[in-house]
Structure formats: structure tokens, C-alpha cells
Amino acid sequence: MCGIVAFTGTADARSFLLAGLARLEYRGYDSAGIALVQPQAASQEAGSAGGTGAVLEVVRRKGKVASLVEAVEKSGVAGTCGIGHTRWATHGVPSEENAHPHCDCSGRIAVVHNGIIENYAHLKVELIEKGHVFASQTDTEVVAHLVEENYEAHAGDFTEAVRATVAQLSGSFALAILHANHPDTIIVTRNDSPLVIGSYEGGAIAASDTPALIDKTREISYIRDRDLAVLHSDGSIEFFDPAGEPFTPAIYHIEWSLEQAEKGGYPDFMLKEISEQPRVIRDTIANRFDRKTCALQFDELPLTDEELADIDRIYVVACGTSYHAGLIGKDLIENWARIPVEVDVASEFRYGNPIISTNTLVIAISQSGETADTLEAVRLARRAGAHVIALTNVMGSRITQEAQTVLNIKANIEIAVAATKSFLAQVALLTLLGLYLAQERLLLTGAQVREIYGEMKQLPGQIEQILSDTAAIEAAADACAEAQTALFIGRGVGATTCYEGALKLKEISYLHAEAFSAGEIKHGPIALIDPDAATPVVAVATQSSTRDKMLANIEEMKARGARIVAVATEGDERIRELADHVIYIPPTRECLSPITASVPLQLFARFIALARGCDVDQPRNLAKSVTVE
Ligand code: AGP
After folding, report:
1. Backbone angles phi, psi at 526, to 5 degrees
2. Which residues contact 8 (CB under 8 A, 6 or more apart)?
3. What is the pLDDT of residue 43?
4. Tag placement on the chain: N or C end, fewer CB within 10 Å?
5. May I ask the CATH architecture of the domain 464-611?
6. Do 273-457 and 464-611 have matching folds?
7. Residue with the larger pLDDT of the pair 356 and 116
8. What distance in angstroms lies between residue 153's CA and the mean position of ligand 1's atoms?
9. Biggest alpha carbon distance in the chain?
10. DSSP assignment of 24-76
11. Domain residue spans in the chain?
């Protein structure tokens, strides 16, 4: 999950590359680097510059992009054609030697890469046998040496050399490749890794994701697996398919603005995105209920009434937070539409042997639309004949090109690595989908659907109320910040809310947290309560059919020395007698409580992470999109 950028034009490449890398840093941040073409005037060894007189200058640094910026400014390198990279290490430790760009033996070819070259070991042996000398432990470096080989074999045809190289690679890659003999040209390609391409009056550009180029152009193109795009300094771009045939790709317009990709005055992206949740819910549910027909509408879903009636099984496939959204969706869809729903982590589903027929509906959830395991799960489902619905936040992402139906969660760009607003948007959309399926299968009347939809329209205001007073959340967080471990307990949708709350806490504060169905606590986990440590137990105990059971579970934990942090419904005085900290939220229907109860848990995690000095936007070892297996 690295970030790559590429620029060739008349303007200064350096500023575009460094600004682009800073905006892609959420994709990986253990090292970074750029390579710039230095024209003849700057290069002393014209003779060694293959006739063009140009050479490449490479600057790389371990650590975040800020370290690279400082090094580049000190180096004084500049140029109008270059590539850049911010790394999330897969092969080779984070170091300057393993930082991208990587070069061939001559130093005249440079490559940046996002993904994993799965056959790199075999290729590396062959290249070493041919006399190539490697300088890094990375899989990426084989690409530079292969281009060197193929460039010679194709008599200096840069495009053909790259095309031949791509044909030799297996695995996932988004690549940007420079050659000093072609000082105005950059060739980019991809396979199972994201890449967006655009141009503007200053030149031609490419990047792993739209934040890197949004301030230059809103019109972007995507290429298919193993296509090539040849970027020229006059802003023109040539597109070739793997067979070398030229083609013209579709153009997509980026909807969101640069400021939506910036912090907007918030201390971190995570708080900004948590604070955007009222609008996100408003946008996600907007225009879904048709007053004239008194029915929910999902025009994106092309299934006929008969096909909808014939659905006899639903799989939900996803990873991480998206998987937790799926668990909540399961409860709601089964409760209303009475269709069996199985929720699988995509990495298990894709290697399992799921029971799929043409009556199976598969719902794939992915904020980025680029998660490798989820994409493979979609491909398996499609091959088996299922209808696949993709819930995603990134239109144009690969999942949107692989599923038959795409539902946009409309959360706008999410920069913080820890998912927040996209999770709430996923849950809201799954809630609507569950209602829709029940409506179409005549299990809920229009009046019933309208009532619940009406309550969903209250959610933005209820979230705003929670956000308006976070003192109780901060106090609870302060009391728990030094803990070594924390338990989360809930029942029904309260339990699945806890799964996500525990993930949020551990992924940004590194405090070990684990969620359990409250009824399970006595079957083992209660042994984790350490009275000396006053182990924090976060209990989602909002108004529900099992609230009394929850109170009993809380008492059991309290009696053994736990510190109880309860998320409860306003007006519940009984909980105040049991819990050390009570976080009240407005009353909602039980099925809607995951949306409101998740907000305090997001803030609880963020307050603890800040108290522990953690980087809430870019937690260690993580990346925003896991585009490798
Ligand atoms: C969530 O906070 C994490 N960033 C991670 O679990 C994420 O949800 C998971 O990697 C799935 O990503 P996706 O939704 O883009 O597929």
C-alpha cells in the first residue's frame, strides 16, 4: 500500500511530486524518494548520458515525506520530469537503500512501484546470472533491471521495453518508469493496484490516488490491468493495451474538492472525518425514499422483482472495519428481509469453497475499492454466478469495475487510516438495503419503511448532539489511557458495534482491546479482569431488548474490579449506579443504535491515542488501503 506519483511537463516536477507524496502519505510512510531527469545543462558527464545528455538524480530518505522534502531542498535537484514514492514496506526493511525509486545498473532507468511482484525472486536470479547487480532487498528493483534488458533487446524503444517487462511480471503493481534517454517521457502501468492518470496545461500526471492530482485536474482516467500510458511533457498521453494497440480511455470527473482533502482547521483528519459524520449520513440516505410511491428506491440494483424474490442466500465479504459494517448489516437484513446472511472476511472467503448459485447475492464492502482480498472475493463470486453489489467510497476504483452493482456510500474522501465516517456510511446504506429487500419481498409495508426511514433522518442531528459535548467521553478516556488492555461488551447489534470500537482503539492507540458478546464473558474472557489494574470494560448498554441482561453482565464485571465505561441511552439512571463513566446518547430504535453508539467509541479511541502520544491519522504499521494480500 504505497503511494506513487509521476509528472512530466513544462512546470517544476519537484513541487508536484513532493506535494503529491504528502497527500498520499496515508498510503504508507516508512520511507520516500523521488527521481528527477536532469537535462544536459545540469549533467557533467554528457558522454555517459546516452546521447541525450540527461541523467537521473535520485533522492531517498527513510521516514516520512517531510524528511525527503528537507533532503530534496538541500540537494538542489530540480527538473520537469520525475517520479516519486512513499513506501509501506513489503519486501526489505524500511531503509534508504530499500526506499524507492529503484534503478537499473546504469542508473539511467528509475522505477517506483506500489504492490508486490510475486515472481521477483525467480526474475532476480535470472538477472543476476546475466550480470545485473542489485542494490536493495526489494521486489521492485527487478523491474528496473528488466526494463534495462528489454530496452537493449528492443533497440531503444522505451514503450516496447516496458511492455515486454510487464508481460514478464506476475503479482500486483502500479509502476511509473523513467529513462534518461527519454527525458520528457514517463510510462505508467498497473495490475491489481490503483492508478489514476490526468493532464493539465502544465503537463501529464499520474498517481496512486486522486488527492495527489486534484489541484491540477478533476478529469482523470483509469487504465485496465497491464495497459500502458505514455505521458509526454506537452501534456499528451498515449494509451496502449497489453497487445500494444492504442485506445482512448473514459474520463471521470472528480466530485470532491481539495479542501475536502485537507484538514480544514481540525487538528487531525480523524477528528475532521468524525465531525463530518452528520453530513455523511444525510448524504448517504438522501433521496432514497420516494414519497410518491411510498417506497425506498435502489435504481442502481438491476434485479427484477422475481430475481429479488429468488435470492436464497447472501454473503457479505469485506475486511477490517468494512467487515464490522457487514456484521451489523447481517443482523438488519436477516431481521427484516428473512434471508440468511453469512459475513466472511474476504481473505477467508476467497480461499474457501462458498456455496454460491445464481440465487446468491454477494455484498462486497470496501471503502477504498482497492483491497486485494475483497477484490479477489468479488471475482470468485462473479465466476460462480452470483450477483455482486459493491459498497464503496471511491467511484472508479477497481471494485466498481468488477461488481455488477455499485452503491456509492458518499462519505467523500477519507484520509485518516482509521475508518470512521465511511463505516457509518456503510452501516447506513446497509440499513437501507435491508429495508429495501424486505420491502421488495413484501415483508415490510411502505408505512413501516417510511417510519424507520423517518427515524434515520434524525440520525444526523443525534450525532451532532453527541459531538457537541464530548466531556464525558474524554474523562473516560483519560481514566483508561494507561491501561494495558480493554474489553468491549455488548449484545446483538451492540456486540457488533463493540467489535468496531475495539478495532478503533487498538489500531490508533496500540492499547490491546478485544470485543465479546456480553453473554460470552463468563465463558472465559472474564478471567482477563485484573482488579489491581481496574481493567476497562466498555459496555454498549443502550436501550434494547437485552438491556437488563447487559446490566447483569456489567454488575458481574464490576464485582471483579473492572472499570466500567458505559454507552447508554439518555435518561437511563440505573446505569449510573453501576458504571464508573456513563456516556449518554440520544434514544434511537435498536436497529439504528450502531450508528449513534459508534461515535463515542471513535472519540474514546482518539482521546486515548492522543493521551498516549500516538499519530491518530497515520498509526504505525498500517496503511489506508491494503492492496496486497
Ligand atoms: C479500518 O480502520 C482500517 N483502516 C482497515 O481495517 C480497513 O477497514 C480495511 O483495511 C478494509 O479497507 P477497505 O474498506 O478499503 O476495503
Report:
1. -60, -20
2. 80, 81, 82, 184, 185, 186, 203, 204, 231, 232, 233
3. 47
4. C
5. 3-Layer(aba) Sandwich (3.40)
6. yes
7. 356
8. 43
9. 84
10. TGGG--SEEEEEEEE-GGG-S-GGGTTTT--EEEEEEEES-HHHHHHHHHHHT
11. 3-261, 273-457, 464-611
Give SS3 for 21: helix
C-alpha cell of 368?
A: 477504498
From 2, 81, 480, 614, active-site residue: 2
Contacts of 253 (CB under 8 A, 6+ apart): 218, 219
The stretch 299-308 carries a mean pLDDT of 90
Dihedral angle sign, alpha carbons of residues 466, 470, 472, 476 = positive
pLDDT in tens, 305-319: 899 999 999 999 999
Instruction: Please tell me the class of the 273-457 domain.
Output: alpha beta
* Closest to 24 measured CA to CA, from 176, 187, 171, 141: 176
How far CA 494 is from CA of 76, 131, 155, 502, 542, in Å, comes to 56, 61, 65, 12, 8
The pLDDT tens digits of the residues spanning 249-271 come to 999 888 877 767 677 678 899 99
Among 371, 499, 628, residue to substitute to test ligand 1 (most atoms within 8 Å of Cβ):
371
Lining residues, ligand 1, CB within 6 Å: 319-322, 366-368, 371, 374, 417-419, 507, 625-626
Enter the C-alpha cell of residue 134: 542489485
